Amino acid sequence: MALDTISTADFERFRRLLYQQSGIHLADNKQPLLIGRLGRRLRELEIDAFGEYFDMVSRPGGEVERQRMIDLLTTNETHFFREPQHFVFLREQVLPHHPAGTPFRAWSAASSTGEEAYTLAFELAEKFGDAAWEIVGTDISHRVVAQARLGVYPIERSTEIPPALLKKYCLRGVRSQAGSMRVMAHLVQRTHFLPANLLAPLPDIGRFDVIFLRNVMIYFDLETKRRVVENVLSRLKPGGTLFIGHAETLQNVSERVQLLKPTIYRLSGAH
To answer: Residues with catalytic annotation?
Structure first.
């Protein structure tokens, strides 16, 4: 069978498996995306049919390749200072009110290749300097977690970072690293990345003053959104701040949070 088409039955099987594993619902119009991303992998493995590949990833012993499939199908678009109004609010309304002497902890809950988490690192370094602060980044994709840990990005991404912060916290690659930039080591050391599925029991990552859960709920149905948000809120300190994506809302999703501004919420309880 040619790898430029997929049967309705096979697409449905992949869609169901991805939903079970990640909570992500692939719409009907995502067939070309699935064909494109998985087709390349099938060619690498010299597998001729999507049905054969499905059998491989769904059977016992197929866990490693199943994770590879999830990596390929999850969307990882991100950049530095995305939705900048969130970082203005963080800088002006959240960080100044943090109690002195208390470590500030932030979680980038769908961190992709790490740009969001390192943007938080720039902000926290500016505010707190060498005082105690920490960032955790998690993603369902093991591949992007490994990439984020490096803190290395194409130099073209530098245009997304304010020049003063770029100069202060990033290094331009030379020789074999030419064409890239690196986040400085002292920020990378305070920014910890690990794989996590937001639908599953979370790893022991503690509780946070701020959580960014942005541009991930758009892939979930209502019931999955409720489960994910409940799971994430269990790690937000009372009075802590939750940021979601500009196309998202918590209306009918959670009653535990108070709307501060569109896409910005506070968890009920003492600050």
So the answer is: 37, 139
